[in-house]
Amino acid sequence: MNEALKLKKATYHLWTFTVSKLISSFGAQVYAFAISFYILQATGSAASFAANLICNILPRTIAAPFAGYLVDNYSRKKIVIFSQIATTLAIGGLLIVILTMGLSLAAIYTTSCILSLTSMFSGVAFTSSITGLVDKERIQKAMSLNQMSISFAAIGSPAVGGLLYGAVSMPVFLIIYIAASSIAIFLESTMNFKLFTAPKTDEDEKEPMWQSMKSGISYLKTQALLMTVIWIALLVNFLFGAYQVGYSFILIEKLKISSQQFGLTEGAFAAGMLLLSVYFSVRKEVKYPLLVSKWGIVGMGIIMAAIVLPLMIKLPHSLLFTYYIVLQLGLGATSTITNTPIMVILQKQIDDRYKGRVFSILETMAMALMPLGMVLYGLLYDVFPAQWIMIVSSAMFVGVILILARPSVIRRVHPETAAGKKIRVKKVPTSV
């Protein structure tokens, strides 16, 4: 295939990938909203609700290393398509159970486990295939469009879920999900996952599974940059638990903000992500990605600390709502400034033969630390003043990035900065 045709196909991939991800993300989040609402409405039990959350996290955490092996050794396109087909069949199975026996918690938990696994396999396969789907010059655009899909889903899914849940029965809702998932399968079947991938050599023969996993870990250990990025991602993800637990606790319990206003501030976070995703999708690729991510994380840490200001300085209620809208827009924007360049680094630096294993290892460790962070901070907020927990965690959050992405590390990653040049990072808008 000549270069012009490949670039045309890559452009097609950009949009089919975006639409497919939008359908799958939107469907999954609307489903999660409706099912969570049903569980709480039907049982009134927080334990039943928590059990469904565990069904969403635990299977993907356990299976992620195996997904990495499969993605690196088998057809990524087939894994994506089979995962989407399994999602469709799982929803179809739940529909049959509802029509024949009625909705039960056992059926919901089983479906949640299956969907957790299929989304993880599909996600790792898609992420590992970006450099095969699009040309190197548009990797940042692809990652930005992916983030836009997630942001659109985060903004729209509660509204759509609430509308559908109140307007149609659960079987009709599931039929809509099946139809959308079928469209995603069709789109994915038209994509060439090896458009920009080098042909396999004799050295790329399949290894036994455990040997392959060990090879993936050994590869990681030899890549100083990847280890730095992964440690930053893991520690920042863990410390971000202070915000994930504390934000709701501070606004609802301490400041007594209404549920409607709280929901709008949550939506502002997704809107901030969306705005910066649009910006990254149309601008040139970031020249110094790790440097941009570094200051994005510093910005996140400062905004996290600012969340507790109304606990120390009393603000009028009307101003309080506006204050948190602006903070959430800024936090969503800085999270995109952080994530998009880091994902571009990972896409370009990781050898295609190891991408599945590296991304699955990252997912496993991140998912493992997320519940730990939430449990730890949940206990801390019950014992210590919220403002000091958030301030100390924010300081650690900033400290981690300043140490792990210190100037000597930046110079190793971006050697151009070692010549004594003054590097100016183009300012990226963080709010509207």
Furnish the topology, listing elements before pairings.
Layout: H1 3-43, H2 46-73, H3 76-101, H4 105-133, H5 139-167, H6 170-189, H7 209-222, H8 224-239, H9 241-254, H10 259-282, H11 289-306, H12 309-312, H13 317-349, H14 355-383, H15 386-404, H16 407-413
Helix pairs in contact: 1-2, 1-4, 1-5, 1-6, 2-4, 2-14, 3-4, 3-6, 4-14, 5-10, 5-13, 8-14, 8-15, 9-14, 9-15, 10-13, 11-13, 11-15
Membrane topology: Multi-pass membrane protein
Pfam families: MFS_1 (PF07690)
GO molecular function, one term: transmembrane transporter activity
Please tell me about this protein's structure.
- This is MFS transporter.
- Its main location: membrane.
- It is found in: Cell membrane.
- The longest helix is centred in the first third of the chain and has 41 residues, at 3-43.
- The model is unreliable at 428-432 (pLDDT under 50).
- This protein has 432 residues and is mainly α.
- It is built from 16 helices and no strands.
- It folds into 2 domains: 1-192, MFS general substrate transporter like domains (Growth Hormone, Chain: A, Up-down Bundle), CATH 1.20.1250.20; 212-422, Growth Hormone, Chain: A (Up-down Bundle).
- It has helices at residues 3-43, 46-73, 76-101, 105-133, 139-167, 170-189, 209-222, 224-239, 241-254, 259-282, 289-306, 309-312, 317-349, 355-383, 386-404, 407-413.
